[in-house]
Amino acid sequence: MPYFIYRIHTDKRLEPEGSFNSYREAKHQAKALRADQDPDEQTSVRIIFAHNPIEAERLLLTPREAPVEGDD
Questions:
Q1: Given pLDDT bands bounded at 50, 70 and 90, which one contains residue 70?
Q2: Does residue 71 belong to any structural domain of this protein?
Q3: Which of 2, 4, 22, 32 ranks highest by number of CB atoms within 10 Å?
Q4: How many domains does the chain have?
Q5: How far is 67 from 71, CA to CA, in rounded Å?
Q6: Which superkingdom is the protein from (predicted)?
Q7: Residue 68 located in a structural domain
Q8: Which domain holds residue 12?
Q9: Which residues lie across from 6 on neighbouring strands?
Q10: Pick from 47, 46, 39, 40: which is nearest to 21 by CA?
């Protein structure tokens, strides 16, 4: 399964930035994209591991459940 890189805009719009077979390549590309990003730009760069771009986008847009706090 490949690693996909997406730029996420504040309006939850996803912009694909590439896909890589190794995490190391994806990590370096994501760091480069973050470094080149304008400080005023309100986007984030995320890496996601998925079978295909459709699954990657679904995973990125699905809100995570808040962790349960308290006694375990």
A1: confident
A2: no
A3: 4
A4: 1
A5: 12
A6: Bacteria
A7: no
A8: 3-60
A9: 16, 46
A10: 47
| In a domain? residue 72 | no
Residue 70 lies in a domain: no
What is the distance between the alpha carbons of residues 66 and 60, in angstroms, rounded to a whole number?
Answer: 16
* 3 state SS for 15-71: EEEEEECCHHHHHHHHHHHHHHCCCCCCEEEEEEECCCHHHHHHHHHCCCCCCCCCC
- For 69, half-sphere exposure in the C-beta direction (CA atoms, 13 angstrom radius) is 1
Q: Which residues pair with 40 in a beta bridge?
A: none
Task: Tell whether pTM > 0.90.
Answer: no
Taken in order 59, 62, 66, 68, the sign of the CA dihedral is negative
What's the number of CA atoms in the CB half-sphere (13 Å) around residue 12? 7
Phi and psi dihedrals of 20, rounded to 5? -140, 150
